[in-house]
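User: Hey, quick favor. My workstation is busy. Could you predict this chain's structure for me?
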Amino acid sequence: MPSALLRLTEVSKRYESPTGAEAVSVLRDISIEIGRTESVAVVGPSGSGKSTLLNIIGTLDRPTSGQVLLDGQDLSRIDDIKIAAVRNRQIGFVFQAHHLLPQCTVLENVLVPTLANNDAALRNGAGERAKRLLDKVGLGARLTHRPGQLSGGERQRVAVVRALINQPKLLLADEPTGALDRASAQNLADLLVQLNREEGVTLVVVTHALDLAKRMGRVLELRDGRLASENGK
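Assistant: No problem, here it is.
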């Protein structure tokens, strides 16, 4: 395995009941390492904790206990302001819903994450990087189109480029093909594999789609909040 970019050690997540009832455990003692440039699928039945795990990895939620290290930085020891900076600069997100701004063009949507980027050099080169990536995903002629003028698959490709615009180390995708037809889902799977290889970004995908999971280098299965199995190629 390449050197670890992400390390989770005995991560658990519980949600306390406001009525005083017993707390609900969603994740239980998850310990995993994910290497730089690796591609990993997280699978399991509904309610197994997949999205919660992804949210904790992506700093959208914090574990109740355990440790999360991203590139050697202990995310449990930094405040919310620094967490937001890590999220913007080092992590890209793709969700089942594309969350594009309907009033903005394709190019403008892709550039939204750069508005909060403090790296002047990266921000100044973002326009050209956006055009290069959009061309790579087959949308070079769609820069001035708005989301309503695109197909579902095209909108999701824009969302992937937006997630990559700040050159993150880690790309997280939560059911990215869930709202797409079979052909569009296949095209998006091809794109994610290609970008993982060519852009050198570490990829973690939560999915129910076995075809997509099989395209990843490693598959982690969650059951009842625990890591049930791990299969690599």
